[in-house]
Records
---
Amino acid sequence: MRSAFIVPVLLLAACEQALVDPAEETAPAIVTDEASDDEPQGVTTLAGSWRVAELDGDRFENFMPLMLFGNVRVIYWDPACAGWERRYVIDGREFSATPPPSEGPRIACDIGLPERIEDVFAAIDEADRIQPADGGGVLLSGLRRSILLMPI
């Protein structure tokens, strides 16, 4: 019985990719523009652990919690071997995300995906704006889609 639990955990650990550089993981997500106290803080990175709180304005409470992780260049769903990751660039309030370039065949883990993960990454793909949200959150938005991420 105990080995039935340990084997899947070991398999997930084996398919893990080291996406997070410890030096990148500690970067602050929000900084203050000291030139003006009237302007809100700006988001400079998605480094850290995030919970999807809203998708397209709808609360995510009715769904299984979906957690994302990031460093200063990549936001991803864990385990990384599942392939759900995006490289991103933040320039002021502008945001862009792209799938990583193909590096040839890779080992993909066979794992059940969380409900609505495709919708979550479609919203990230479409986002072209980024702004801070209440409670330390981050709002990514585009023409038709939006996603609110809250820190864990």
---
Amino acid sequence: MTETVTTDLLALATTLRHAINNAHLATLGRATEIARIYDERATNPRIGDLVTEATTIFGVRHKNGTDLDAVGILEEIASEGRGGMDEVFYIRTLDGRRFKWVNASMIAAVSEPTLLR
């Protein structure tokens, strides 16, 4: 992958990550039915959803991590670790890698009304 493509993908990942998080934050504390439905759908991502990892969005990132590691298509949700206590999310990042998040919070990008149901 060229440096320009990597830079463009990183910028896109950062923008998507913040936009998805901000859309979700806009629903919190709202009493409207659509906000409640959106929040429910966004915080319960499904396989195939465009997602962002929300635990580290404004804080500490994993070693050498970038926003490219935190945006992608959700491929798998699993229970792993000792006694299956860890919730694990596998995403296909924008640059095509399979990336693993453990005990993280994922938010789905809910982009059309039909996805709310």
